[in-house]
Amino acid sequence: MRLGVLSFLAGILCLAAGCEKQEAAGSGFSAHGRLKVEGTALVDEHGDPTVLRGMSSHGVCWYPRYLNGGAMKNLAEHGANLFRIAVYTEPAGAYLEDPERSLDYLYMGMESALSADLYVIVDWHILKDETPLLYADEAEGFFDTVSARYGDMPGVIYEICNEPNGDTTWEDIRAYAERIIPVIRLNAPNALILVGTPDYCTDFTGPLEDPLEFTNIMYSMHRYVDISSEKPCGPSQLTKLIAAGLPVFVTEWGVSLEEQAAFSEEDFSAQIPAFPEAAQPFIDEMNEYGISWAGWSLSNKEECHSAILPECQKLSSWTEDDLSISGKLMFSNFAP
Ligand code: IDC
């Protein structure tokens, strides 16, 4: 429980010092209630700026075991106030093949997260399908079903498409958003809604030039710090986007090794320790602007993105020793 104890002590010190921002980052929807987008910031029901930080699940169809109540409680103990649930559309075993199974897992994760006082993002995780228009009918059914079930609950946030990619244009995403957002808003008129952007949530030209007309929306930004180059990541586009007044929510960030395939296993593990230092400028930037984020991902899959070490079989009660280098960095920054 080293990290948990540390965040608890940090919380006490912080409160003693009158540091409200830090205290707020670790508390969930019971304290903040309904969220509203004001300019580039999220404000809570008291009108105070609010930052959400936590983890994203891996695909619910592959790692449902991490959607349990103890896991969510553990995230909250480490200072998180957010959990994102990734419902992959494809491939085999995912939503399109077995919607009931994915919905069961989604609801299980939502109940666990909400019980632990975490805000929850319902993520329609397109990826190989490239354009959200391909399965827009299914998306419409999905968001209608989920928003009807949860109504206008302040803890529930909707992310209408994970990472549009390939030839998908901003116009395609706009057409999709204009179809899906009204479906959600019919059941959940005040919900915060997040919209994926072109080129895997890295290209904001469209939203900047031609933003959506809806209120209470933010644009998803994804950032993977490539450490195979061994260079710390430079200042990202975040500063520019904030200066331009675009509200962004980092719904995924993490480590990537572009040249992963070219590395031997030994080289691969040699690279990972560089991650905390390489990622620090981006973390600092998000903190500076009060940007909300979810780290990818809460699982022990044998890959560089996993927060839990592959040999760790625990499904909750994680201590620092159970976390990967990436997991340690994310968990220790929930309530910095
Ligand atoms: C990755 C998973 C990996 C899985 C792959 C394909 O970590 O285990 O095999 O998806 O389903 C993203 C995506 C996210 C990726 C992640 C890491 O949104 O689905 O997860 N990533 O590659 N964008 C950039 C990186």
Task: Kindly describe this structure.
The chain is an alpha/beta fold. It has one domain: TIM Barrel (Alpha-Beta Barrel), CATH 3.20.20. It is built from 13 helices and ten strands. The strands form two sheets. The protein has an eight-stranded parallel β-barrel, surrounded by six helices. A two-stranded antiparallel sheet has the order 1-2. α4 packs across α5 and α6 runs parallel beside α7. The two termini are about 15 Å apart. The chain binds ligand IDC.
Tags for this entry?
18% strand, globular, TIM Barrel, binds ligand IDC, 10 strands, alpha/beta, two-stranded antiparallel ribbon
Backbone structural class: alpha/beta
Ligands in the model, by name, code or SMILES, are:
ligand IDC
Note the main sheet.
8 strands, parallel, barrel
Quickly name the level 1 CATH class: Alpha Beta
Low-confidence stretches: 1-25
Quick gist of this model?
The chain is α/β, with parallel strands linked by helices. 38% of the residues lie in helices and 18% in strands.
Topology diagram in text:
Elements: H1 2-16, H2 20-25, H3 29-32, E1 36-38, E2 41-43, E3 53-59, H4 69-77, E4 82-88, H5 99-115, E5 119-125, H6 136-150, E6 156-159, H7 170-187, E7 193-195, H8 198-201, H9 205-209, E8 217-226, H10 238-243, E9 248-256, H11 265-271, H12 275-289, E10 293-298, H13 325-331
Parallel strand pairs: 3-4, 3-10, 4-5, 5-6, 6-7, 7-8, 8-9, 9-10
Antiparallel strand pairs: 1-2
Helix pairs in contact: 4-5, 6-7
